[in-house]
Amino acid sequence: MSILTDSTVTDTGASADAKKAHNKKLMTVLGSGLSGTTIEFYDFFIYGTAAALVFPKLFFPTLTPFMGLIVSLLTLSITFVSRPIGAIVFGHFGDKIGRKKSLVLSLMIMGGSTFCIGLVPTYDAIGNLAPLLLIFLRLCQGFAIGGEWGGATTMVTEYAPVHRRGFFGTFVQLGNVLGLFIATAVFAIVAWLPEPQLMSWGWRIPFLLSIALMFVGLYIRAKIEETPVFTEGEAKNQKHEFPIIAVMKYHWRAVLTAMGMRMGEIVLGWLTVAFFMSYVTRQLNFSRETALNGLLLASFVGIFTFPFFGYLSDKIGRRPVYLAGAAITLIFAFPLFWMIDTGSVKMFYFATTFCYSVGLGMMFSVQPAFFAELFDTNVRYTGVSLGFQLANIVGGLTPMIATLLIAWSGGDSWPVSLFLAVMATITICCVCITKESYRADLSVKITR
After folding, report:
1. Domain contains 445
2. In this structure, is residue 12 part of a structural domain?
């Protein structure tokens, strides 16, 4: 059956026009979620790639190559300060005045910040002001991203039919895949430039191109309407004055659970899309093109696996799919690096693709539906955003932690594998204590 014929509009007495109108709204919402998170992750991935490959020389040239890399990766993780703040601020207004307005504002701030990074002069031009501007814009990015994912997730899952919520939720996560694919493809193209041109102006191109993606996202979001679930709660005035207080009072266990469920996924994700860039080029002497091609392949395969896992979670439940992904991450924590450390390009491609599109995919693709089902409508935007973004405190530090562990071990990768295994174990424990929710009703509930 086509997904367009499966809607929340009741068949009895419903006209064909009503069904068509509802399906059109649903597809617009899916397009809004997909476009917004694609831009979010595009911005994120081009910064991660640049931080690993070019920023150490451009913004921290006075440091040793190793310390330049460490500081550059630290700017990548600096958003752990602003992401939770963004989650609280955008979550508050998203739960109080509506999902749409918050999503439009977050997209504008995020796209504008990324574009401005492409205009920042380097250290050679303005000295210490260059890294300070970079950090400021990175904080702005984090603030906006803090409200983007939770808002898109809330919007899509509240519109989705209950028995297709997992599948439709993957459209939010496909933004990760498409953002990674587009960002890696653009960087792979500019990486062909001679070194002087790449360092002079080529690295700016991916950042400047983000403005076009932002306008596409804003055009789509201008057409969306508030979800029926939110409108119902608004009509009954069933909203907390301060959603963050309600979340911390009634849903703090759900926030901690969501954070724990993300540990294995987020560490594996940051290793794949950020740390491997520097690891294989510096430790194994792979070319930039080889490293980027590995990410291209992984993201391309993920385009097909992510929706499948979301669909599967609608059939057998969220917990089995999520647990399988966490178990694969745990089992492959050491073999992942064993394969990469062989120095074989084919093994690197296989390891990266399998762990990203399958191990990570089974967890990441289910998160929108699974996390949304943990919270009541009146605090869902805030709760989902906060649980998701607080986990980035660990995730954002992962590339730097992994780099320090490699240095501490004298080049051995086993400490990083152990770190990943511990995080995957935390995820497994958190999923085991979480109730199955794939048939849960997302209609308005008020926590007392």
Report:
1. no
2. no
* Positions of E strands within 166-281: none
Among residues 394, 393, 390, 391, the alpha carbon closest in space to that of 84 is found at: 390
For residue 201, the Cα-to-chain-centroid distance in whole angstroms is 28
Place of tokens 């301060």: 242
The answer to whether residue 56 sits within a structural domain is yes
* Residue at 7 is within a domain: no
Full domain range(s) for residue 57: 22-432
Mean pLDDT of 85-109: 80
pLDDT digits (tens, 9 = 90+) for 271-307: 988 788 888 988 888 988 888 889 889 989 999 999 9
Share in percent of the chain as helix, strand, coil (round to 5) = 80, 0, 20
- pLDDT for 227 equals 65
Domain CATH number, residue 41:
1.20.1250.20
- Cβ-Cβ contacts under 8 Å for 389 (sequence gap 6 or more): 83, 84, 86, 87, 145, 146, 149, 150
* pLDDT at res. 3: 47
Q: How far is the C-alpha of 353 from the C-alpha of 273, rounded, in Å?
A: 11
How many distinct structural domains can be found in the chain?
Answer: 1
pLDDT in tens, 379-438: 888 888 888 888 877 887 888 899 899 999 998 999 999 999 999 999 999 999 998 988
d(CA 281, CA 293): 13
pLDDT of 241:
62
Q: Rounded to whole angstroms, how far apart are CA atoms 211 and 206? A: 10
Q: What is the pLDDT of residues 127-139, one digit of tens each?
A: 999 999 999 999 9
CA atoms within 13 A on the CB side of 238: 18
Dist CA 383 CA 439 (whole Å): 20
Residue ranges of the alpha helices (H) in 54-98? 55-59, 65-77, 79-96
User: What ranges in 317-444 are assigned the alpha helix state H?
Assistant: 318-331, 333-340, 345-354, 361-364, 367-372, 380-390, 392-408, 414-432
The span from the CA of 135 to the CA of 115, in Å, is 14
| pLDDT above 70: percentage of residues in the chain | 91
Burial, 1: exposed, middle or buried (Cβ in 10 Å; 0-12, 13-18, 19+)?
exposed
